[in-house]
């Protein structure tokens, strides 16, 4: 494959932009500058890639990553009021079409998965699959037994035909519960808690299915490991 095409496949922009990067001598492959945009390369032979002084881990297929979403960021490519979660990632990923697996509210923090794999998004967000998501919920009022009871037995939300119940709920501290839901309705946690007579002050997603949020600072991301991907029923 021609070198500029390879750079394009790695997310470094349009054909023209990739050719320019090469012509300006900004691309170092296996320790050597290569300014020949027509050079024939094979991704498998590229051990190190540095573009414009930034090392880049060569991608060999779809991308799967987790982000510890910060508060006041929007899960949208066209945010209205806050920075986009995508602005936390190197722009190459946006060029490659990375999308979030479902949405979190602007004020919700925690585990957000991002990928270029549409099937992965479908598998984790389709209502039919019912993948459980666990949230740490900070409440305005103490977590009473009645609240836990109501969330477990089901609450009726506006515009819903049937009551929605949690998969699991556990009191962590007086004002904190862990709540697992599988349905993924709009503002579901906040609406369920409100319907049960309390109020969400802060919401943090701590797991999706068997996958916990890794030890990442707010705003940090990393690729999923093959083991994590396998735990979600996928391979890289
Ligand atoms: N439930 C909510 O209310 N908000 C979220 O961001 C996620 C689940």
What does this protein look like?
- The protein starts with a helix and ends in a 5-residue tail after the last helix.
- The chain has helices at about 5-10, 15-25, 90-95, 120-125, 145-155, 190-195, 225-230; strands at about 25-30, 30-35, 50, 55, 65-70, 100, 110-115, 135-140, 170-175, 175-180, 200-210, 210, 220-225.
- The strands form 2 sheets. Strands 5, 6, 7, 8, 9, 10, 11, 12 and 13 form a 9-stranded mixed beta sheet that branches.
- It is an alpha+beta fold and about 240 residues long.
- Helix 1 (about 5-10) crosses helix 2 (about 15-25).
- It folds into 3 domains: about 5-55, Structural Genomics Hypothetical 15.5 Kd Protein In mrcA-pckA Intergenic Region, Chain A (Roll), CATH 3.10.290.10; about 70-125 and about 215-230, 2-Layer Sandwich (Alpha-Beta Plaits); about 135-210, Alpha-Beta Plaits (2-Layer Sandwich), CATH 3.30.70.1560.
- Strand 1 and strand 2 (about 30-35) form a beta hairpin.
- The longest helix has 9 residues, at about 15-25.
- The radius of gyration is 22 Å and the shape is elongated.
- The site of uracil has 8 residues, from helix 6.
Topology diagram in text:
Elements: H1 3-9, H2 15-23, E1 27-29, E2 32-33, E3 49-51, E4 54-56, E5 64-69, H3 91-95, E6 99-100, E7 109-115, H4 118-125, E8 133-139, H5 145-153, E9 168-173, E10 176-181, H6 188-195, E11 200-208, E12 211-212, E13 221-223, H7 226-231
Parallel strand pairs: 7-11
Antiparallel strand pairs: 1-2, 1-3, 3-4, 5-7, 5-13, 6-7, 8-10, 8-11, 9-10, 11-12
Uracil is lined by residues 104-105, 108, 187-190, 203.
